């Protein structure tokens, strides 16, 4: 056991002292924070640019219907289309909306000319104005007052409340849960692959350099494999925790400097509550204080202790399981190119978990979600997707137990391949060859 600790210590210190680790540890949080901050800042800058849009309406239906605002200024023009196009080319307008006189009674087509690609905000606003006016005229022609239709529209806000077996009620936010589920699953997938590949590359490097022949003269192959796997796991856990702390610190500093200004797309929670807050905002019942209260309520609804504990467990369990398989693959080949034939079958369960994510969030309690969340090869991703929606304790415990058992089985199989393959040179291993190594006593 002391030898395993020595290998763990060597693997850990060797990797955390590398310049690449130090640079990525500090650069990663900066990039993550910028990923949230820069798009919001650029979106703000783009919204500040006023666009001048000319309206050439041959029908006369839409005179005065386009209102200035949202950094858009409208001007009606009355010359022929070609003359107005020349004005557009000279830079007098940013865009020209041409509404031709229809062959039938109702204008349903329009053309938007611009020198640059028109933004979605502009096209969406123009389309809504045209659509609303045409619909209103249709209603009037049928003897229906459009204002009565408009006044009858009501914003509905559905509040989701979970009931537990002991009768406790708690408010839930489906959009937030979906965001957390997808984010957690992708993060698990990313970390397992990233650090599992490090184990495989390390084994290949030591085998290629013939260092392994010296090392196994002092330690058993199984001890070497376990020390390498656990050492890299600690490196990954260290980097992840540092990323969480540093990313949060950077974002809090920015939020403080910005004096609490609203930052669009700044976090999963601000995106996720959009559907619920939109209805309230449209009805005029959402105040700044109410918005803040909702954000705090959303935060309180998340069981961060359970999320963090589950993430660490399923990250470590999934990593240990896959790292053992990656180590076995690394020991069976002489270079990284030869790993492709073995990587695909090992990677498929993880890829399946990501592919099935959309189906799982739509039915997190279904039989497909249940079986994939307890199968050890897919449970690290699928169970993390299910946890934000609430998982019965017995299912979570069963998944954790099976993941631990899967790691023991994978390590046992990998050790049999590792002890033989680590000293094999110049021969490409096949699946039949690996099966023989597993059967050796």
Question: Can you tell me about this structure?
Answer:
This protein has helices at about 1-15, 20-45, 80-90, 120-140, 145-150, 175-210, 210-215, 220-255, 270, 275-280, 290-300, 305-330, 340-355, 355-360, 365-375, 380-385, 395-420, 430-440, and strands at about 50-55, 70-75, 95-100, 110-115, 160-165, 170. The protein has about 450 residues and is an alpha/beta fold. The protein has two domains: about 1-35 and about 170-440, no CATH class; about 50-150, D-Maltodextrin-Binding Protein, domain 2. The chain has a four-stranded mixed beta sheet, covered by helices on one side. Helix 8 crosses helix 12 (about 305-330). The radius of gyration is 30 Å and the shape is elongated. The two termini are about 25 Å apart. The relative contact order is 0.11.
In short:
The chain has 441 residues and is an alpha/beta fold.
Strand order of the largest sheet: 2-1-3-4
Number of separate strands: 6
In total, the number of domains comes to: 2
> pLDDT below 50 for ≥5 consecutive residues: which ranges?
260-289
Task: State the secondary-structure class.
Answer: alpha/beta
The total count of helices amounts to: 18
Rg from Cα: 30 Å
Reported for the largest beta sheet, the result is: 4 strands, mixed
* N-C termini distance: 23 Å
Q: Element order, helices and strands?
A: HHEEHEEHHEEHHHHHHHHHHHHH
β-sheet strand percentage: 5-15%
Mean pLDDT, as a whole number? Answer: 76
Shape: elongated
The share of residues in helices is 55-70%
């Amino acid at each position: 056991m002391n030898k395993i600790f020595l290998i763990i210590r060597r693997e850990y210190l060797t990797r955390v002292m590398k310049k690449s680790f130090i640079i990525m540890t500090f650069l990663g949080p900066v990039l993550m924070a910028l990923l949230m901050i820069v798009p919001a800042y650029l979106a703000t800058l783009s919204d500040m640019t006023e666009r001048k849009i000319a309206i050439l309406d041959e029908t006369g239906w839409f005179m005065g219907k386009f209102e200035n605002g949202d950094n858009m200024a409208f001007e009606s023009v009355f010359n022929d289309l070609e003359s107005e196009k020349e004005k557009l080319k000279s830079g007098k307008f940013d865009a020209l909306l041409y509404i031709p006189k229809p062959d039938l009674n109702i204008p349903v087509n329009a053309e938007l000319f611009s020198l640059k690609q028109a933004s979605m905000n502009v096209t969406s606003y123009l389309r809504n104005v045209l659509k609303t006016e045409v619909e209103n005229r249709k209603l009037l022609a049928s003897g229906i007052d459009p204002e009565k239709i408009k006044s009858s529209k009501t914003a509905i806000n559905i509040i989701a409340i979970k009931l537990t077996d002991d009768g406790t009620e708690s408010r839930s936010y489906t959009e937030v849960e979906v965001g957390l589920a997808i984010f957690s699953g992708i993060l698990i997938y990313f970390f397992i692959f990233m650090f599992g590949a490090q184990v495989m590359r390390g084994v290949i490097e030591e085998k290629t350099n013939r260092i392994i022949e010296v090392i196994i003269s002092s330690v058993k192959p199984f001890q070497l494999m376990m020390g390498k796997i656990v050492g890299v796991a600690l490196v990954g856990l260290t980097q992840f925790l540092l990323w969480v702390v540093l990313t949060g610190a950077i974002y809090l500093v920015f939020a403080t400097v910005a004096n609490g200004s609203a930052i669009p797309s700044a976090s999963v929670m601000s995106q996720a509550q959009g559907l619920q807050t939109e209805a309230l905002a449209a009805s005029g019942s959402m105040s700044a204080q109410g918005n803040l209260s909702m954000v705090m309520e959303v935060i309180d609804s998340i069981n961060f202790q359970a999320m963090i504990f589950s993430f660490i467990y399923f990250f470590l369990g999934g990593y240990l399981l896959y790292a053992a398989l990656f180590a076995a693959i690394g020991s069976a080949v002489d270079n990284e190119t030869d790993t492709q034939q073995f990587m695909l079958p090992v990677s498929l369960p993880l890829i399946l978990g990501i592919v099935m994510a959309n189906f799982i969030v739509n039915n997190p309690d279904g039989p497909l979600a249940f079986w994939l969340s307890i199968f050890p090869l897919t449970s690290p991703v699928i169970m993390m997707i299910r946890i934000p929606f609430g998982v019965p304790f017995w299912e979570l415990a069963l998944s954790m137990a099976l993941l631990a058992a899967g790691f023991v089985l994978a390590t046992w199989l990998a050790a049999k391949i590792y002890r033989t393959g680590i000293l094999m040179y110049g021969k490409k291993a096949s699946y039949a060859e690996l099966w023989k190594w597993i059967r050796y006593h």
